[in-house]
Give the backbone structure.
Amino acid sequence: MAINESNKDLLVAMADMGIFANHSFPDFWKSTVAGAKPRWLVIDGNWSEKDIRAWIQAGRENGCSIAFEPVSNVKSTRLFCSPKNGFPLGVFPNHSIDLATPNHFELQTMYEAARRNRYLDEPEWLQVLDSFGIENSRDRFAALGSTKISAEGATTQCLQLLPYIPTIITKLGPEGVLLTALLHRDDPRLQDALEEKYVLSWGPKDHPDVGGVYVRLFPAAESVENVVSVNGVGDTFLGVLVAGLAKGGKVENLIDVAQKAAVLTLKSHESVSPDLGWLEGQLADAAKGPGF
């Protein structure tokens, strides 16, 4: 059940997800993933902390790229749970999660959970963070984000989490979408003159893995006056994004199409707009070219 305010923003929601949190069948999940061999596996925060780890393990054992959808402020913290609830998350380039799509509130609670549970004290995390060279890029840092983003600390929180999640797409509502990515030294964006303005910093020339940090703010696809409901907007955004990634698209080329899909759901009484098929051609065009 979800109740929206008069301006159609979510006021309060209640959902019984006990069937996910209280029933665990990790062997079945592993066999299912092994049989399907998907390119992408999406895990959301409705699962228990233990089961989120089981899904991650199933995906990694079968070569899947993995996306995490936080669901809510409270559930977003389950990814960075106490290490006693499962194996520790890997750090770049051996990361456990490839991509996450929090809103800016969920990003903050994810960051706080990571700090509280000592993920930001790990030597491997610090080594990767040090390789960013951010202290030498303060002017570029200021230029790449809006005043609102910088004030809320979203960019800084993303940078802190990048060693664990190399691609973070933060949904900022009317402010648009913030893409923050940790680039491997072989990433073509580091050599692309059109992409250079989004490269916050370059990694050390002798680092075997870290090539640089990419930060790009995508303006909102549309200013929506006649919002019907915000329910399902985040799921629509991620669903279209992952559909494009599974087709081999680049994340930076897919965000605008995913935003357009989210707008369709904003204007719909359904949790996912039945009109998403209108974007099939745009998604196919955006997905052309080298992969994720």
